[in-house]
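[step 3/7] inverse_fold.run input=structure_tokens len=332
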């Protein structure tokens, strides 16, 4: 089958950073679905893996996908052949940049009926990340009168987290953005207020008249913002992060008895945790919210058919740091 991947760590400027090749057909595990991939989308993890993975043979990249089930493993019970699905896959198995993919049904959701495949492919990884961060890691109460600060509101995760928080909680949502177009994007998605993260965030919150947030979702540049976030967080609040860094001064949280948590959406499937099926449940809840009109796709650009050239274009856009929402592609 057709596939796109890498044979080693290369910068996006290298024409061989991604290659097209013929891959073996996926082998199904007992709870696997065989999916004909109709669309994929890109996330920062795609570029990180491309620039760091050291395979001894071509390695298929890609995580987010939407498609149609064309085969099932012996123990599959949640789906059947012909079902339209969407999912984020897992980091330790062949990816979605291929004609067909094997994926565990416990991390797959029903594709929203109201979206086409490209619109649906934009959602899974960021939706799971946002949901797990808000409800499973930071333990947000859906009914409390508190504030949620989202650092990096116009990115992929921020764009869906704004919507999930507004649709499913009573939290006041304050997003950060530094450009007029990203500020407007956050407001259009439902943010109650937007502040500028190009200056100290605690000062920006105070000048905007916002109260100290009980929950802070730090989605980008956490190390650079951390001291300001420690000053900003409410006593007994919590800061949750998803980006990569080392050596945070977490002692700054002690006097507030505030917490710090990580979110990594691949944890459940990689470690085969007993609650792995929660990702299936999260995606189905998101799908229902989309079809009910409470959440919209975060797709902002369709780059066309999947090819080495279009995928490299997507990787370049992500690495520029200027994308809003999600970039996606149709399948082969």
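[step 3/7] decode complete -> sequence:
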């Amino acid at each position: 089958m057709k596939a796109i991947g890498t044979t080693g760590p290369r910068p996006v400027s290298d024409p061989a950073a991604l290659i097209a090749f013929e891959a073996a057909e996926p082998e199904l595990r007992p709870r696997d679905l065989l999916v004909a991939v109709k669309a994929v989308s890109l996330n920062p993890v795609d570029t990180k893996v491309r620039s760091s993975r050291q395979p001894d043979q071509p390695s298929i990249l890609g995580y987010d996908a939407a498609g149609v089930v064309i085969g099932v493993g012996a123990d599959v019970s949640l789906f059947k052949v012909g079902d339209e699905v969407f999912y984020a896959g897992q980091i330790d198995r062949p990816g979605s940049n291929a004609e067909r993919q094997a994926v565990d049904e416990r991390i797959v959701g029903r594709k929203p009926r109201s979206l086409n495949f490209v619109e649906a492919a934009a959602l899974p990884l960021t939706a799971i990340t946002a949901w797990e961060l808000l409800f499973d890691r930071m333990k947000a109460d859906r009914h409390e009168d508190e504030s949620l600060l989202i650092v990096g509101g116009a990115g992929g995760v921020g764009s869906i987290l704004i919507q999930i928080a507004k649709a499913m909680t009573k939290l006041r949502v304050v997003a950060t953005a530094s450009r007029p177009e990203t500020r407007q994007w956050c407001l259009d998605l439902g943010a109650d207020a937007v502040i500028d993260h190009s200056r100290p965030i605690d000062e920006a919150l105070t000048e905007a008249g916002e109260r100290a947030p009980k929950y802070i979702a730090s989605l980008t540049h956490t190390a650079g913002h951390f001291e300001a976030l420690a000053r900003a967080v409410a006593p007994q609040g919590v800061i949750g992060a998803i980006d990569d860094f080392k050596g945070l001064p977490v002692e700054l949280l002690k006097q507030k008895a505030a917490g710090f948590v990580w979110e990594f959406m691949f944890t459940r499937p990689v470690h085969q945790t007993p609650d792995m099926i929660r990702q299936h449940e999260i995606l189905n809840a998101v799908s229902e919210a989309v079809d009910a009109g409470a959440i919209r796709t975060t797709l902002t650009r369709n780059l066309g058919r999947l090819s080495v050239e279009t995928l490299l274009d997507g990787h370049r856009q992500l690495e520029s740091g200027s994308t809003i929402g999600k970039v996606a592609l149709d399948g082969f």
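[step 4/7] annotate
Residues 3 and 98 are 4 Å apart (CA to CA).
The longest helix spans residues 124-137.
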